[in-house]
C-alpha cells in the first residue's frame, strides 16, 4: 500500500509540473525570453579584466516602491559601458504602460504622465526587446535590487525565469570605497564626484548618471589595483558572479 500511495503522489507532482511547463510558454515570446535569460546567466571568468567587460547600466521609474502590492514600471532605460566608458550611442529607452494610474507625486518627480504611457507597450513586450540588448553583459545599477525586483517579478510570470547576469551595484562599491560616508544616495555620490545631475529621476537619465559614476569608480579601483572580476569580488567580500536572484 505505501508504494501505491507514493506512486500516486509522484504521478500528481509530475502532472502538476507538466502543467506548469505547459502554461509558461503560452505567453507571447516566452521561449525567446527564457533563451535570452539562460544565455545571460553565464559567469565571467574571474581573471577577466574589468575594462574588457561589457556592462549594461540600467534604471527604472515606477509607480511606487511595492511591486508585490501592485506598483508597476513606467519607464526602463539603459546605457552600455565598454572599455570603462559609457557609450551614448548604445542606449535603450522605453516608456511602459503600467495598466494602472500614475500617482501625481510620481508624475511631479519624473515628468511621466498617464497620457504619455497610454499608447506604450506593457512591460512584457518591452522586456522582449530589452533582454537581447542586455544579452550576457554584466548588469550595473544603483540599488539595483530594487529595479530587479520589479523586472524579475514580471519575468517569473511571463516565462518562469529571472535575470541571472553577473551584476554590480554602485552603492555597494561606494560603501567599500568610502566606508565613512553618511549617505550613499545617488545624489550624494554624484555631487561628491562632481557629476551634474542632468536628467535625474528619468530612467535613461539615471542610467547615464550611474554609468558615469561607475566609470569613475572603475578608475579608482584601477588605482587600487582592483582590475579583474575576481579582484573586485574579493574587494566587495562576496561573489559578484553568483549573487542571489532578486
Task: Walk me through the structure.
Helix 7 runs parallel beside helix 9. About 4% of the residues have low confidence. With 246 residues, this protein is of the alpha/beta class. It has a five-stranded mixed β-sheet with strand order 3-2-1-4-5, sandwiched between helices. The chain has ten helices and five strands, in the order H-H-E-E-E-H-H-H-E-H-E-H-H-H-H. The protein has one domain: Ribonuclease H-like superfamily/Ribonuclease H (Nucleotidyltransferase, domain 5, 2-Layer Sandwich). Helix content is 47%, strand content 15%.
The N- to C-terminal Cα distance equals 43 Å
How much helix is in the residues?
40-55%
Query: What's the architecture, going by CATH?
Result: 2-Layer Sandwich
Strand order within the widest sheet?
Answer: 3-2-1-4-5
The unreliable regions are 13-23
| Spatial extent as radius of gyration | 20 Å
How many DSSP H or I helices? 10
What is the top-level CATH class?
A: Alpha Beta
Largest sheet: 5 strands, mixed
Q: Approximately what portion of the residues adopt beta-strand conformation? A: 15-25%
- Number of beta strands: 5
Question: Can you write the helix and strand succession as a string?
Answer: HHEEEHHHEHEHHHH
CATH topology: Nucleotidyltransferase, domain 5
Task: Please give the domain count.
Answer: 1
Mean pLDDT: 89
- Approximate shape: globular
Amino acid at each position: 500500500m505505501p508504494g501505491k500511495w507514493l506512486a500516486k503522489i509522484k504521478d500528481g507532482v509530475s502532472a502538476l509540473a507538466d502543467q506548469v511547463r505547459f502554461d509558461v510558454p503560452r505567453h507571447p515570446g516566452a521561449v525567446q525570453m527564457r533563451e535570452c535569460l539562460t544565455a545571460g546567466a553565464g559567469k565571467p571568468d574571474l581573471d577577466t579584466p574589468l575594462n574588457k567587460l561589457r556592462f549594461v547600466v540600467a534604471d527604472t521609474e515606477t509607480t511606487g516602491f511595492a511591486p508585490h502590492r501592485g506598483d508597476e514600471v513606467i519607464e526602463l532605460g539603459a546605457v552600455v559601458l565598454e572599455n570603462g566608458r559609457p557609450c551614448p550611442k548604445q542606449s535603450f529607452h522605453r516608456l511602459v504602460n503600467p495598466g494602472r494610474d500614475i500617482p501625481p507625486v510620481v508624475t511631479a518627480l519624473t515628468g511621466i504622465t498617464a497620457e504619455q504611457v497610454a499608447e506604450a507597450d506593457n512591460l512584457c513586450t518591452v522586456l522582449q526587446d530589452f533582454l537581447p540588448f542586455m544579452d550576457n553583459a554584466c548588469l550595473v545599477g544603483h540599488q539595483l535590487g530594487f529595479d530587479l525586483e520589479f523586472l524579475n517579478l514580471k519575468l517569473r510570470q511571463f516565462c518562469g525565469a529571472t535575470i541571472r547576469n553577473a551584476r554590480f551595484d554602485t552603492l555597494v562599491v561606494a560603501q567599500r570605497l568610502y566606508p565613512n560616508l553618511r549617505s550613499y544616495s545617488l545624489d550624494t555620490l554624484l555631487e561628491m564626484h562632481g557629476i551634474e545631475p542632468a536628467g535625474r529621476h528619468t530612467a535613461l537619465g539615471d542610467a547615464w548618471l550611474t554609468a558615469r559614476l561607475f566609470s569613475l569608480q572603475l578608475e579608482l579601483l584601477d588605482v587600487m589595483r582592483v582590475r579583474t572580476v575576481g579582484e573586485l569580488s574579493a574587494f566587495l567580500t562576496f561573489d559578484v558572479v553568483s549573487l542571489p536572484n532578486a
